[in-house]
Amino acid sequence: MEFFAHETAVIDQPCQIGQGTKIWHFSHVLAGAQIGRRCIFGQNTMVADGVVIGDNVKVQNNVAIYTGTVIEDDVFLGPSCVLTNVTNPRSQVKRHSLYEKTLIRRGATVGANATIVCGITLGRYSFISAGAVVTRDVPDYALVVGVPGRQRGWMSRHGHLLRPDDDGRCVCPESGYTYLLETDESGAERMRCLDLDEDAPLPPELAEGEKSYDDFKT
After folding, report:
1. What's the DSSP call for residue 102?
2. CA 20, CA 141: separation in Å to the nearest integer?
3. Residues 118-157 as b or e (16 or more Cβ within 10 Å = b)
4. Residue among 53, 42, 45 nearest 15 (CA)
5. Are 144 and 127 in contact (CB under 8 A)?
6. In degrees rounded to 5, what are phi and psi of residue 206?
7. How far is residue 9's CA from residue 46's CA, in Å, rounded to a whole number?
8. What is the distance between the alpha carbons of residues 66 and 115, in angstroms, rounded to a whole number?
9. Most C-beta atoms within 10 A of its C-beta, which of 37, 149, 185, 209?
10. Among 42-46, 70-74, 91-95, which stretch is predicted with the lowest mean pLDDT?
11. pLDDT tens digits, residue range 156-215?
């Protein structure tokens, strides 16, 4: 068998599930869903029809992923986080043909109990803190906290705060990779990694975390 599904999981056909993916207790994958390789779906998760999920995506317990959602590789969805697909839902008004797209780019993290309002994009390696309510697009590597969600800094691929110097350079304290904060022609800030292409996987020696957030919090 290319993927594993617990005996209590419901897998409707036809759907696509990649090699090495694991789907645990009381989960439901609807017909028409597309799931990549080496993903993990915790207890009581749901993937609706039309959802597209990349490789190595970790979905924790009690997460429903609704039609209109596209999730790229290496995304982490924390326990009981909420994704939506209609901005103005009404029980009496059918909007099945008006589901809005939510795009979660590669490497992004959505914390436990966070809410992502549909129709937005979470940038690559962005970090949405636990309990945040996100209503607008989030830049790559941005740290978003609060209700409503507001950017409060930048996070490295390893999930540590980046502190730019006067030249916009900063170093991840765990990986040693250098990042650069730039301003584009519109005046918007953006962060990028100078030592590794955004679409490249982490080298094996850096893929095993050795430091917690608390190790570098001060």
Report:
1. E
2. 28
3. bbbbbbbbbbbbebbbbeeebbbbbbbbeeebeeeebbbb
4. 53
5. yes
6. -110, 0
7. 10
8. 13
9. 149
10. 91-95
11. 999 999 999 999 999 999 999 999 999 988 889 999 999 999 899 899 988 888 777 766
